[in-house]
Amino acid sequence: MGRADRADLADRPDPGTTLPPAQPFQFTLPDAWATVLAPYRDRDLLLGLRPEALSLGVPAPKNLHGTIITLETLGSDTYVTIAIAPESELDSVLDANPLSSPMIRLTARLSADTPLALHESIWLTIDPLAIHLFDAATGIALFAAT
Predict the structure, then answer these.
(1) How far apart are CA 12 and CA 6, in angstroms?
(2) Residues with Cβ < 8 Å from 113, sequence gap 6 or more?
(3) From residue 77, how far is each of 35, 73, 89 by CA, in Å?
(4) CB 124 within 8 A of CB 108
(5) pTM above 0.70, yes or no
(6) What's the 3-state SS for the chain?
(7) Per-residue pLDDT of the chain (146 residues; tens, 9 = 90+)
(8) Whose CA is closest to 136, among 19, 1, 46, 17?
């Protein structure tokens, strides 16, 4: 989810695109999703994340690894956009305009006290209670049982 304008939306990968093969990603959903997702077994889903659902993490299969391509400090928050791309493609992405490249980008809202730099490699953790899932074919939002 995050911040996006029309030009950014036009440059996104196709809805069925998953994370690049060089960046395996596994994420265990809370139990509240089990019943809702049962009919979606072997079907594509879209994962939506707001910037506040991401925090700095450590290297782990459940976390997302990326490179900072934009950094903006606003008072007590710093918004970073990370590019998720295979290491072999990252240099060419950073040399070009990373915001127009067809790669997966995520925006995270982090504390302004966190020392960060452009092109720095970081890991982000997803708050499992703050995810949004959508049916990839219809765009319909799915809601976890409460």
Answers:
(1) 10
(2) none
(3) 36, 6, 30
(4) yes
(5) yes
(6) CCCCCHHHHHCCCCCCCCCCCCCCCCCCCCHHHHHHHHHHCCCCEEEEECHHHEEECCCCCCCEEEEEEEEEEECCEEEEEEEECCHHHHHHHHHCCCCCCCCEEEEEEEECCCCCCCCCEEEEEECHHHEEEEECCCCCEECCCC
(7) 333 333 333 333 444 444 444 445 677 888 888 999 999 988 888 888 999 999 999 998 888 888 999 999 999 999 999 988 766 666 666 666 655 555 788 999 999 999 999 999 999 999 999 999 999 999 999 988 77
(8) 46
**What six digits make up the tokens of 80?**
């970073």
Residue 67 in tokens: 């490179």
C-alpha span between 123 and 121 (Å, rounded): 7
Both tokens of residue 56?
A: 């700095």
